[in-house]
TrEMBL record:
The lineage of its organism: Eukaryota, Fungi, Dikarya, Ascomycota, Pezizomycotina. GO terms for cellular component: mitochondrial matrix. It comes from Lithohypha guttulata. GO terms for biological process: mitochondrial translation; ribosome disassembly. Catalyzes the GTP-dependent ribosomal translocation step during translation elongation. During this step, the ribosome changes from the pre-translocational (PRE) to the post-translocational (POST) state as the newly formed A-site-bound peptidyl-tRNA and P-site-bound deacylated tRNA move to the P and E sites, respectively. Catalyzes the coordinated movement of the two tRNA molecules, the mRNA and conformational changes in the ribosome. Mitochondrial GTPase that mediates the disassembly of ribosomes from messenger RNA at the termination of mitochondrial protein biosynthesis. Not involved in the GTP-dependent ribosomal translocation step during translation elongation. Keywords: GTP-binding, Mitochondrion, Nucleotide-binding, Protein biosynthesis. It is found in: Mitochondrion. This is Ribosome-releasing factor 2, mitochondrial. Gene3D superfamilies: 3.30.230.10, 3.30.70.240, Elongation Factor G (Translational Gtpase), domain 3 (3.30.70.870), P-loop containing nucleotide triphosphate hydrolases (3.40.50.300), Translation factors (2.40.30.10). InterPro entries: EF-G-like_DII, EFG2, EFG_II, EFG_III, EFG_III/V, EFG_V, EFG_V-like, G_TR_CS. Belongs to the TRAFAC class translation factor GTPase superfamily. Classic translation factor GTPase family. EF-G/EF-2 subfamily.
Amino acid sequence: MWQNTDRTRNIGIIAHIDAGKTTTTERMLYYSGHTRRIGDVDEGSTVTDFLPAERARGITIQSAAITFNWPPQVDSAEDVKTAEAVASQSLPRSTLSHRINLIDTPGHADFTFEVRRSLRILDGAVCVLDGVAGVEAQTEQVWNQAADWKIPRIAYVNKLDRDGAAFGQTVREIGVRLGGWPALCQIPWFEGGRGNFCGVVDVVNLVGLKYASGGDGKSITTYNMTHLEAEEPALAQELRKARAALVEVLSEHDDAMVEAFLDAEEDHLAITPAQILSCIRQCLNAGDGKVIPVFAGASFRNIGVQPVLDAVNNMLPSPAERPQAEVSIGATTGYLDDLLAGRMIVHSSTKSKSSRQAVVPVVGIDKTLKGCALAFKVVNDSRKGMLVYIRVYSGTIERNALLYNTNLKQSERATNLLRMYANESVPVQSLEAGQIGVIAGSKYARTGDTLISCATNKAVPPSPLDQLQLRPIHVPPPVFFASIEPNSLKDEKDMHDKLNLLLREDPSLHVTQDEDTGQTLISGMGELHLEIARDRLVGDLKANATMGKIAIGYRETVTQTSRSNSKIFDSSARGDAKGKAGCTAAVEPYRSRTLMDEHSDNALQHEQDGNLVIVEAPTLDRKGRPLDDDCVSLPGHLTLNEVQSAFTNGALAALARGPGFSYPMRNVQVTLTLDPAKHIFGSDTSYASLTAAARLATIAAFREVSSMGGIAIMEPVMNVDIGADDASIGSIIQDISSSRGGQIVSLGDNEEAEANAQAFPREIDVSRIYAPKDPFEFGSSAGLDQQVNKQRSIKAKVPLKEMVGYLKHLRSMTGGRGTFTMSVDRFERMTGQREKALIAELRGGA
């Protein structure tokens, strides 16, 4: 097969849960010839939802990567001639067979992190919308996540065969809620204007595509403009309106379309499809989502999927057409192009008020760096072992190359490179930039790790390459946790080994050990997230273990200030190897960032998880030298940076476990002070002993505050976005504000959105959005029903404790039609009766 990146598409399928992502993916695989039968979500026979938990629940849990060719043809002697015709724009790009690397992402809010780590390796995305429900809460979330990476997106309105489907209404919602101008590339074809959904009309090529009723979607009858005017005059007239609207939208965003319109003597129909496709590509490549090409179909009825595949080839960019990836080295961020060209300057992480940040120019990287890739997915395959899916961003990753993991600081060889075609694999010798492949049998790589190959072929690359991070993302704090115990002592090691496999696949899971009880705790993003983790661990990986009840991950904080607590750590007292060091610590509430000017020149500040750690050495300068003759200097084997790093790690270890109920600490400022005369004991003082001393001193400060009653509990407060029919809004608001102690932030509907659009010219003006009439608009009763039961959204802030098990309650209030998404907004201190009730519950549980 070819190695041409111009004919490669790395795309994702994104949407709200149950919009039809997996069903659409299965049709794509079938029409490309990759599968011989169409998989069904309800039957559990889909290719991409292969986990038992996915098939049992009928939802996508892990993003699935799959490769196929569209159109389904191999290279031939005619391919060169066709390529020349495509280059001259006399034929569309979809005439040539392209390799499509497709990622089917989850839609459930609990797996938002899975979506984010999949999105960052994409060059384009297809957003699937439910034609009945319209733009739902999770649709907006994944759309905005894709916008963070400036990913070109097209919209596919699915399920137009269902009762109540409203293509026109959905198009208007796309403009209002997704913040872009819908550019209709297709309009739906209903028999007689009000009958069954039977096909789509291509606005770009001015043809109608009618699908055989009840068929597999391969039998399509094409109608040109003349035939449409003869058989469906109303539809032909609507097509003229749609073509004029498409040209108008594109003209507002690309001057080339204005010139083409003038050259065509202001005839909208005379503009060629090649000119329209070129303009759409230009608008999409900006990645700002201002122009949104819209397509129509019904994947379950096998209508409209092939034109979406053509649009992927024609409109979405190849890897070579996308901007360079973001990278970071330490605290410095930039772009891969700048790094390779030597234009990136690395700043040191040490800050002081009297000196500027140290800078290190990065040169010669292009000669040293042979290949750079991102591990975006890890799968445990029963036959092939651990499969690490990678996207190559620069250079080449070759078979048997020594790859350095910049996250784990470890090296291993890529002994087996594969290109995956669903469950089948093909060995390859190398993977070029822009390609997606698999490293089989990796021992260390995890989801999200950056892998680099260097010309030096050494285990550790030269600095600062060893700190290079590709497209780093922030992992949100887990808010649910559960205990997990082996069924017997002999199963404990096996359980921890399989937990490590699970963590490699999903880094948004966290596993910790309770020091007092010895319990293993697993934390995740939601109830379903932990339930799936349990199913994977016990069902798929066959670990002999039991998971306890899912609980909420609270935080502890301090409400008072401690005195300075000094502690000396002496390992010899415990019979261990020599190691002795001291530290002084004080803790206080942390409400806003402390100014560096309040501390000494060489003070180090480290902010993490809502806490601030300050390390001071008042008798030393920023290089670790004594400020006067009476001061003691550091021994030769220690530097001030090492001492500061050790103290910081010790404080962070203490912050991970509060003195009250062992929850992590939050909103705490820890000030650590080093006095070499009291805390350093010559060669006996090591990095590990300094870390231990800082931890002991910080714990002592916490205990002092705890003895004064200065420890409080903080609970996660969630941003909740609820979507429901208009008839259910009243009961939902009452439930949130009265029964659950939540705060309603906003109540959104289409009228409000339209009013906002009128008030702010920079927003989308709904009155200017073209959308064909929906079938229900021809009948008064159907129209009233649609108006009464239209979807509205509620945004609220609610304590997480009150949202446990909320989905079942919401469905009972809305007749099964309500949906919601939530994310952590902040941690808020509990007070009054709610705090007393929680403390009683925690102590009773203990």
